[in-house]
């Protein structure tokens, strides 16, 4: 159901390599409260299959609406390790407030991903495997 006080909405789905990285990103981002009372934000983790089901047309991992309810419920049959997509839902009073908040989100997400890329063991191991596979295929 659409909240008439917050008619502008955006859902951003960001797939990450593992559940641990997705969970770390969620925890890192949710500690900062939304600055404006004109914007509401919520985070959740979903599986790739849930994300694909919600956006079967494959048009991008973001869905923008003005008054269109498009939230999906989590599937009870999904194991926690399959939850690798960080789903962020924004609701705002105006498109301008939505844009300002989402810009801030992407700046924060960029920092989180940069730290993961530089410091996380799983990411470094995956980069080594990818580079090794590339060299073997050449």
Question: What does this protein look like?
Answer:
It is a single chain. This protein has 138 residues and is α+β, with helices and mostly antiparallel strands. The chain is 44% helix and 21% strand. The protein is built from four helices and four strands. The protein has helices at 19-30, 48-54, 95-119, 121-137; strands spanning 8-15, 39-46, 62-66, 85-92. A four-stranded antiparallel β-sheet has the order 2-4-1-3. The radius of gyration is 17 Å and the shape is elongated. The chain starts with 7 loop residues before the first strand and ends with a helix.
| Fraction in beta strands | 15-25%
Intertermini distance: 53 Å
The stretches of 5 or more residues where confidence is low (pLDDT under 50) are 56-61, 67-75
CA radius of gyration: 17 Å
Strands side by side in the biggest sheet: 2-4-1-3
Number of strands: 4
Features:
single chain, 44% helix
The gist of it:
By secondary structure, the chain is of the alpha+beta class. It has helices at residues 19-30, 48-54, 95-119, 121-137; strands at 8-15, 39-46, 62-66, 85-92.
SSE order and pairing:
Layout lengths: L7 E8 L3 H12 L8 E8 L1 H7 L7 E5 L18 E8 L2 H25 L1 H17 L1
Antiparallel strand pairs: 1-3, 1-4, 2-4
């Amino acid at each position: 159901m659409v909240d008439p006080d917050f008619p502008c909405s955006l859902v951003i789905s960001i797939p990450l390599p593992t559940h641990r990285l997705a969970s770390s990103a969620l925890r890192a981002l949710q500690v900062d409260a939304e600055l404006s009372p004109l914007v509401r934000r919520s985070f959740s983790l979903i599986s790739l299959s849930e994300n694909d089901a919600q956006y079967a047309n494959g048009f991008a991992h973001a869905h923008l609406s003005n008054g269109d309810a498009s939230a999906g419920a989590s599937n009870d049959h999904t194991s926690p390790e399959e939850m690798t997509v960080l789903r962020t839902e924004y609701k705002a009073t105006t498109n301008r407030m939505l844009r300002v908040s989402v810009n801030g989100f992407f700046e924060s997400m960029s920092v989180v991903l940069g730290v993961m890329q530089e410091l996380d063991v799983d990411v470094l191991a995956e980069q080594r495997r990818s580079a090794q596979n590339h060299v073997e295929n050449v």
